[in-house]
Amino acid sequence: xxxxxxxxxxxxxxxxxxxxxxxxxxxxxxxFYGDVMGYYIYLPSAIxxxxxxxxxxxxxxxxxxxxxxxxxxxxxxxxxxxxLEHWLNQYTYAVALMELPFFLAAHLYETAAGLPANxxxxxxxxxxxxxxxxxxxxxxxxxxxxxxxxxxxxQALVTLILVLLGTNMxxxxxxxxxxxxxxxxxxxxxxMYVTIRLHEKPGTGWFIVVGLIAGFITVMRPSDVVCxxxxxxxxxxxxxxxxxxxxxxxxxxxxxxxxxxxFILPAIPQMLYWKLVTGSYIYYSYGGQAFNWAxxxxxxxxxxxxxxxxxxxxxxxxxxxGLMFYKSLKDWKxxxxxxxxxxxxxxxxxxxxxxxxxxxxxxxxxxYPLLSLPLASFIQYISRKSGATKAVFAVACLLCxxxxxxxxxxxxxxxxxxxxxxYRFYLQxxxxxxxTYEDMLxxxxxxxxxxxxxxxxxxxxxxxxxxxxxxxHYVSDPLDTAEYVYHVRDGEEYFPGxxxxxYKQSDFKDVNWIRCSGRFxxxxxxxxxxxxxxxxxxxxxxxxxxxxxxxxDNKIGVADNxxxxxxGTGLSFEHTEYDRWGEVYFFVKVPDGLNDGxxxxxxxxxxxxxxxxLDDFKIGLYR
Length: 623
Fold this sequence. Notes:
alpha+beta; Jelly Rolls
């Protein structure tokens, strides 16, 4: 059999292995929420419920999961605030159109099998998964075809493996199906392939296809309109090639007009939808969400541990280095050096530059077909070096792949959240498979915790046991484990019984660490808004000179090892223990720059205003 067959087979097996891995370890897989729901909802609305004008009008007896109703009600609230009469979907239809074949397969199966066929059952979730994997496969095959025009088989194959396993593409291919990024990866790869074919055989059909693909990309995510530069700049590397391209444009100007018409064509269904819902053919559906062109977050977007690009796509450092190798990129280098910085500026000018609800900087996936070229150039360069250089590169690649796979596994298990990870937590969790109590504190406080065994306890600095009732917040312990405890009631956000102590430098002469602790009991669900355990220092003008906090809800039973999940593989950030007492503690390194008279406080911020009980507040000093 041909090398091409074995290449496709190897890619398919890699995708199947990734799907099995994430299917096993991702307990909240393919849930209809957020962006996924926004893209997808067109399909059941248009095909099953015929309610495109008001997608929130769903039958209550169709077996639809509650999360769908919660989502549509949430969006409806914003529609009402915007003065809209009908339910408006802020997302465009293009992703739904690419999901359509898989949706229809699931719907036919549900109908034939006598299942609810409601558009939201497990069959439809599985269909989204299949679509994600299929578009990943097709995109990688197209990228392979492009790479083979410039590089040897093995160099192209290694490039594809590194793009899949060494970047956040792995997460979106297998861990979070239904987003726009994998379809856009495929469309960019298709645009590159068709652009080459157009220049080899510039028939009208190829111009039409290029226009359609670019138009579809732009409708899917308007910020990707930069894709138009790809066919125009392809092949331009010097003055002579620029003159040839201008001549090419002149000769084929009428075909370019056809391409422009078909570029506009994908926007027509979207405009008709906006007209149906808003009364206007053009409508900005993102409300107050906007670009801040004067203040792009370039450094944060590229390097931040909180969903930055390179920490979650480390092999792309090799791709950026590969831009230096001009000869093997002759046809594409101007395309990349123009599109890449412009695109980076655009996406990191967005108000939410870290693109929450994902793993790493998700819009960058769209450019991975283009960036595969300089990555392959770097691999080609390494292939010509000594065995020692190749070995170092191989180890570096293994570390990059290991980092992506380990963090993807942890995120699937709810033991990591790239949206708001700090660098200390990022480094601490690399290559790990479980979460510890100390890891949770580092994630929330952005401060490493000391090795308790190496510390010497000096003294207790402040303490409250709440055993002298002062008002009706002091109540008998509901679980009869203590005489009196403090009850923060529903609706009360702030805690008046906090510890406050005046800082004296003489008291902290030998102190390196401050231990903050308390015992807590939460009777029930806290509505996803945590109770925060706060340590703060204020100056004599009540300005905060230091402030840090950790969540209480997910640590009860973990700090004192009284929960079965403590220290085990089952511990995650979603861990909760209701209706039981447990200690929560954290260490704070003595802040620099404290002055006599500063006020040290140990406090609670009840962000969700949900009742809880507390006891034994304590500040201890350690060396």
